């Protein structure tokens, strides 16, 4: 695995945002079929630029606007926030108190450092294949609960790029949930308390130990706030260089964080391909067309496929809902 | 609602129609009433309900809600208060319940604190009523309240029986009861309090709620609806308040004292001045005890203290002559010139006995009045110690009164929960060595009266007054306790009268 040098980021990001970032799919996701007017336009993004410059309340008119801005600013990190009542980039013009966060996906953040009390192989930011098992378990437990108990259908699991995973629950009704209900869901899913009592005994001792070690540990603050900003899928991790890629939950046992492509590795792959293909490029062809072919030839491809499957399911659901609604109206 | 002045015109419905109006013994108050009632009835219904809600509050604070003791006491209190007083039938009771609730919305929508209090008591009342509703009536009540809780079929229930029972929090003994109960399927987000604590079985986004747990959800719905309704009511309030018949009533309802007024001269002359010192430690509530102590130490009290303490003394039986002597003696000890006293202070005292000016015989302040109005400043000793004293100072004071540490901590807990009068009741219980003071404290003179009852073992007949407290109106209609005086009495509240007095004397 090629090493990643953070100093190369500015150049790498330039290439990434021009040739590899999957704008079309990304926009398809956040636009949610265009069913609600201005849903994309009212979404907050935040960028972390070079030298840790952090800017909030970014918003964009459409996919091409998003592309232009990202290519212009070359963000080191991208976070996704809530859908607001007004365009976030105009929030200063709005009457005091009128600018409100209205909807957002329900998100979960599972961080390996929360397991430090039960892992001996690594600590803090480090991970290895041994302790990653804990993460695999967490994903399976949480995902089952979200699906079977709560009936959530559209769950996107994403590798955070270093030591954890995120889950984005994107069902339409879920995006509208109040902060109180979000907190309630985290409470429902939380079992492990931060105590290190070792004086338990009795018939349930084994179970207690297993639960204490393996049960998922969630950060409630990430999930409860509607305006909370979370790292975007396909964002790059500035320290590891790894791309925040979607995880195929059906094959979660085989997911290996150490094989997730880094920005330097996929850029190198891109270079190799271009060289191999020679200078056959037609200058008239648009960048977009290139891009759709480009990422497909890199190790990013399988992850984007997972993403596209997720988007397909969203589309199907949406069509189903619209049909139901129009049926009801016609019946009347 | 339309108001016809003084003219009683009630809709007369036939039996079936009446039942249709109020098919259940409790309701969600979704629709406002739409008949004509007289102002008298408006007022009396409102006061009755305030009394009821205050009882609910008191019981809710001194007992654990839902316990056997709480339930039976609340039931007894509701009957004692005769909320269905002089009511012959169930329809009448439900009608009064309906109307009085909506009247109180007008009075209690006006501030965050009032809203919170009102919602809390109404919820507790609803919880109680729901708990005594017969099981077979529950489903139809839910339906009529537009709560879309469907009971699941027997087949659906048996499929999940194991999970539902396992998720329920009941003991194994009552688990068998669960097998016979209905189970309701509701969207999980509507059962927040249940699922957050994993107290209910969730499947595919639905919570399977057994009957006994449906109450929590019903109450949540009720709270949400009432909260919204109060916000709306507040917005329409200006229109209502512009009706001058209603405005004073609504403004004072939430502050109204609805018990005995202690202005009766029945016990006048029974106290001698040299008893006051010992009475102050034995039978005075802390507010008056501290005023007396301050008066003795400083030979002076400022206006607020003179008012609060002076009227209390009148209520315990001091005559005007005694009062004049009492205050003069003390002030002179403070090197006041006797002439200055006669010129400045004695007029005040005679005024408060109704012998000067408007000749209104002022009534001693109730707890509510003391707690809510005219907070003490630097150099003042009036007010309610539980409300106005710094908790540390209060603790020291209670220690100096020789209250046990356990008692002190209970009192401080109640103070923290803003249950000032219950804290005072606790003080009563500690100083009189009783487990239960046996009354619901709402007036300093009531404290004194109850204390004397225990200490002297006497059984004085308490003059129960059904009419609300008020200064008695002008002498010309003094003895007239009919409808118009009741209305006038509420219209001219104590505050309004006191304004005249305060203007006269400035600090």
UniProtKB/TrEMBL annotation, chain A:
<dbReference type="InterPro" id="IPR002755">
    <property type="entry name" value="DNA_primase_S"/>
</dbReference>
<dbReference type="GO" id="GO:0046872">
    <property type="term" value="F:metal ion binding"/>
</dbReference>
<comment type="similarity">
    <text>Belongs to the eukaryotic-type primase small subunit family.</text>
</comment>
<dbReference type="InterPro" id="IPR014052">
    <property type="entry name" value="DNA_primase_ssu_euk/arc"/>
</dbReference>
<dbReference type="GO" id="GO:0005658">
    <property type="term" value="C:alpha DNA polymerase:primase complex"/>
</dbReference>
<dbReference type="Pfam" id="PF01896">
    <property type="entry name" value="DNA_primase_S"/>
</dbReference>
<protein>
    <recommendedName>
        <fullName>DNA primase</fullName>
        <ecNumber>2.7.7.-</ecNumber>
    </recommendedName>
</protein>
<keyword id="KW-0235">DNA replication</keyword>
<keyword id="KW-0639">Primosome</keyword>
<keyword id="KW-0548">Nucleotidyltransferase</keyword>
<keyword id="KW-0804">Transcription</keyword>
<keyword id="KW-0808">Transferase</keyword>
<keyword id="KW-0479">Metal-binding</keyword>
<dbReference type="GO" id="GO:0006269">
    <property type="term" value="P:DNA replication, synthesis of primer"/>
</dbReference>
<keyword id="KW-0240">DNA-directed RNA polymerase</keyword>
<dbReference type="GO" id="GO:0003899">
    <property type="term" value="F:DNA-directed RNA polymerase activity"/>
</dbReference>
TrEMBL record, chain B:
<dbReference type="GO" id="GO:0046872">
    <property type="term" value="F:metal ion binding"/>
</dbReference>
<feature type="region of interest" description="Disordered">
    <location>
        <begin position="461"/>
        <end position="486"/>
    </location>
</feature>
<dbReference type="GO" id="GO:0003677">
    <property type="term" value="F:DNA binding"/>
</dbReference>
<keyword id="KW-0408">Iron</keyword>
<dbReference type="InterPro" id="IPR007238">
    <property type="entry name" value="DNA_primase_lsu_euk/arc"/>
</dbReference>
<keyword id="KW-0639">Primosome</keyword>
<feature type="binding site">
    <location>
        <position position="367"/>
    </location>
    <ligand>
        <name>[4Fe-4S] cluster</name>
    </ligand>
</feature>
<feature type="domain" description="DNA primase large subunit C-terminal">
    <location>
        <begin position="278"/>
        <end position="448"/>
    </location>
</feature>
<keyword id="KW-0235">DNA replication</keyword>
<keyword id="KW-0238">DNA-binding</keyword>
<keyword id="KW-0004">4Fe-4S</keyword>
<dbReference type="InterPro" id="IPR058560">
    <property type="entry name" value="DNA_primase_C"/>
</dbReference>
<comment type="function">
    <text>Regulatory subunit of the DNA primase complex and component of the DNA polymerase alpha complex (also known as the alpha DNA polymerase-primase complex) which play an essential role in the initiation of DNA synthesis. The primase subunit of the polymerase alpha complex initiates DNA synthesis by oligomerising short RNA primers on both leading and lagging strands.</text>
</comment>
<feature type="binding site">
    <location>
        <position position="384"/>
    </location>
    <ligand>
        <name>[4Fe-4S] cluster</name>
    </ligand>
</feature>
<keyword id="KW-0479">Metal-binding</keyword>
<feature type="binding site">
    <location>
        <position position="287"/>
    </location>
    <ligand>
        <name>[4Fe-4S] cluster</name>
    </ligand>
</feature>
<comment type="subunit">
    <text>Heterodimer of a catalytic subunit PRIM1 and a regulatory subunit PRIM2, also known as the DNA primase complex. Interacts via (C-terminus) with PRIM1. Component of the alpha DNA polymerase complex (also known as the alpha DNA polymerase-primase complex) consisting of four subunits: the catalytic subunit POLA1, the regulatory subunit POLA2, and the primase complex subunits PRIM1 and PRIM2 respectively. Within the complex, POLA1 directly interacts with PRIM2.</text>
</comment>
<dbReference type="Pfam" id="PF26466">
    <property type="entry name" value="DNA_primase_lrg_N"/>
</dbReference>
<dbReference type="Pfam" id="PF04104">
    <property type="entry name" value="DNA_primase_lrg"/>
</dbReference>
<dbReference type="GO" id="GO:0051539">
    <property type="term" value="F:4 iron, 4 sulfur cluster binding"/>
</dbReference>
<feature type="binding site">
    <location>
        <position position="424"/>
    </location>
    <ligand>
        <name>[4Fe-4S] cluster</name>
    </ligand>
</feature>
<dbReference type="GO" id="GO:0006269">
    <property type="term" value="P:DNA replication, synthesis of primer"/>
</dbReference>
